[in-house]
Amino acid sequence: MKVAVAGCCHGALEKMYETLELLQRRHNVRPDLLLCCGDFQAVRNEADLRCMAVPAKYRHMESFYRYYSGEKKAPVLTVFIGGNHEASNHLQELPYGGWVAPNIYYLGYAGVVRFRGVRIGGISGIFKSHDYRKGHFECPPYNQQTIRSAYHVRNIEVFKLKQLKRPIDIFMSHDWPRSIYHYGNKQQLLKMKSFFRQEVESNTLGSPAASELLHHLKPTYWFSAHLHVKFAAFMQHQANSKEELPKATKFLALDKCLPHRDFLQIVDIEHDPTAGDSLEYDAEWIAVLKATNSLVNVTQSSWNMPENNGLHARWDYSVTEEAIKEVLEELNHNLQIPCNFTLTAACYDPSKPQKHMQPVHTINPQTTEFCAQFGLTDINARIQQAKEEGSVRVDYEEDEEEEMDSTGSTEEPSDYNTDNSGLSSINPDEILLDEEGGDEDLSTCSVDPSPDHPPDFSASFSDIRIMPDSMVVSSDDAMDSTNEELERSGESKQVEEKSLNERPLKRVGGNENGNSGIKIKRRNQAIYAAEDEDK
Question: Residue spans with biased composition (Polar residues) (predicted)?
Answer without folding.
Answer: 415-427
